[in-house]
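Ticket opened by: R.M.
Priority: normal
Category: complex prediction / small molecule

The reporter submitted a protein together with adenosine monophosphate and asked that the result be attached to this ticket for the collaborator who will pick it up next week. Submitted input follows.
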Amino acid sequence: MSCCDAPGLMPIEEAMANILENTHTVKETETLPLDKALGRVLACDILSPIHVPPFDNSAMDGYAVRIADLDVSTTLPLAGQSFAGAPLKRQWPPLTCIRIMTGAQIPAGCDAVIMQELATVTEQGIQFDASPVTRHQNIRPLGDDIKVGQMVLSKGKRLTPRDLPMLASLGVANIQVYRKPIVATFSTGDELKPVGTPLGEGEIYDSNRYGTIPLFKKFGCDVVDLGVIPDDPALLTKAFEHAQANADVVVTSGGVSVGEADFTKDILEQTGEIGFWKLAIKPGKPFAFGKLNNALFCGLPGNPVSAFMTSYILVQPLLAKMSGDSDWKPEPILQATTHCAFKKVPGRTDYQRGIYAINEKGQFVVETTGNQSSGAFRSMSLANCFVILERERGRVEVGETVQIQLFNSTLY
Ligand code: AMP
Ligand code: MG
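Result attached by the on-call engineer:
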């Protein structure tokens, strides 16, 4: 980590690389029952202990036959049944058929299942239509989906609702996952009041924690919420000490600008190490990253859009890496045509808030959410994408092409 007090602002790509370089995956793992493992990250590869399906079974409700018998007669008396969970127990005499249901074990010797819609029950037995019967038709063979010993999920996979049924089909009851990273967080500012209390003169509600804490939880972390700490160096120092002793990452909001009451950076210099501070992005310029004794540190800007947006853009990848989630990627950058002008001055990469739609030709179009002030959170609330305007770009006119990045599921 190199100190960055040099003039100029750090490009976001460099900041991101620096953050990831300094982030390590948690070492500790825990074993959870399958139904508690959703959203957790696998700490080891999963190899299938069994074949799935574990036996040849019927894909249809119908009749199990031997094709050779059908060459002799297309009407075969019924000799027994195989139902799901209740396989055929008795002998299967030649020139007969077996009633079989979907999922039921295929009786030994059977080489086709004929669906019941192609058969008629008669006094002489089951009469099969003349349609051709092919070997193994409607039979799902053992191991058709997954073979014993096959790797089905690899270490570093975050478990989704699509993974759990597959693991259950293998009989996996317990899963070894990484422990969740712990984020300790507090807001700073003498002006911040809790919701549910009246505002005094010059006061505002502490809104940042209502966005960042749910985000950290959605990113798969446990959160230690330390509330609001006033702009008092002694209290802030105490809060930092407590936070870093109890977390993997300390995330604060506010106090990282250059105002008289912005103490975060000074305290970090005394109690830890600053990696960088001030990015070439808008909003989010006064974002600080560093190390405390035991924990990493992210200092979010106080302005609500900046705090939320930097949590999403910069803290999310850090927490993904710390969680062991090796598949995590930012959403792809797409091209969209603007339906309105976007104000922009060259110098920083803008993450403006936009609303995209897909037009009748299947192309992305985008418009602004309006007021793009970093204090105007409605721009974030209305948005469904970021409009990423390159660092050196100026004002964007109607009909120009811009880059957009749709929100991932954590913002819904
Ligand atoms: P600061 O970074 O502390 O200078 O704060 C920048 C702006 O964000 C100021 O207008 C603060 O009042 C506002 N702000 C700081 N923290 C919060 C918070 N937790 N919730 C809402 N607004 C905040
Ligand atoms: Mg402040």
